[in-house]
Design goal:
mainly alpha, 67% helix, Fumarate Reductase Cytochrome B subunit, single chain, binds protoporphyrin IX containing FE, two-stranded antiparallel ribbon, elongated
């Protein structure tokens, strides 16, 4: 029997996703040495402390620009609905292997949707707060109290983003066959039928 595939992402979406991943790694590895002295060794990746400090904001802005493109093509599919409440209520049972109470899932499950909005919120806060203390360009426009608040917001949002990415990557690796969606752009019909039955029905016209 031949395996049948369904298209999940176009080439431009996938290239942009991997661009965002690269910029995330660059921003994270140049930002962590600025967060705490124990993480200073990460600055070697950028070529030393000064380069980490200079490059970090540019990498961050590029990541936000790439994600903004993803956001505007995907936000509709990530709106939460009543079934997502049921999904969350039964998520702990699903993690133990019991999927009997899970509602039928569309293009994304509730976990993916929550991670999507965590990405959006943390990146928005990182972007806005980062400008407030970006020396030497913008810092002079803002009072010292606002700059201090911005530093705390920036650090807290960075932690939320990193944790969200860890959950995102773990889920992508945990559900067998998912990585293919972002490496080839396609998934097997069985993967879709098993993990996203409503999306499968939409894509196959109810076959
Ligand atoms: C090495 C790191 C990463 C890997 C391996 C990875 C992998 C994947 C995979 C396999 C999918 C397809 C999931 C599906 O269609 O069901 C996906 C979707 C997606 N990824 Fe990533 N990803 C990574 C990092 C990131 C980062 C850093 C961001 C943004 C900050 C991001 C944002 C997204 C978004 C928005 C989607 C669309 C799915 C959704 O809206 O939930 N990814 N990723």
């Amino acid at each position: 029997m031949t395996t049948r595939y369904l298209r999940r992402y176009g080439d431009a979406t996938r290239m942009n996703h991997w661009f965002v991943v690269l910029m995330f790694l660059a921003a994270a590895l140049s930002g962590l040495p600025l967060l705490h002295p124990s993480l200073y060794f990460f600055s070697n990746v950028a070529g030393g402390g000064s380069w980490a400090r200079i490059l970090h904001p540019y990498m961050g802005v590029l990541m936000v620009l790439g994600f903004t493109l993803m956001f505007f093509t995907m936000w509709r599919d990530n709106l939460l609905n009543a079934d997502d409440g049921r999904w969350m209520a039964n998520a702990s049972r699903m993690l133990k292997g019991d999927k009997s109470n899970m509602p039928p899932i569309g293009k994304y499950n509730a976990g993916q949707k929550i991670v999507f909005w965590m990405f959006g919120l943390s990146l928005l806060l990182l972007f806005v707060s980062g400008f407030v203390f970006w020396r030497p360009w913008f810092v002079g426009f803002f009072p010292i109290l606002l700059r201090r608040i911005a530093v705390v917001v920036h650090a807290a949002s960075a932690v939320v983003l990193v944790l969200s990415v860890i959950v995102h990557v773990y889920a992508a690796l945990w559900i067998k066959g998912t990585m293919r969606a972002m490496t080839r752009g396609t998934v097997t019909e069985n993967w879709a039928r098993f993990n996203h039955p409503l999306w499968h029905r939409k894509m196959t016209g109810g076959e």
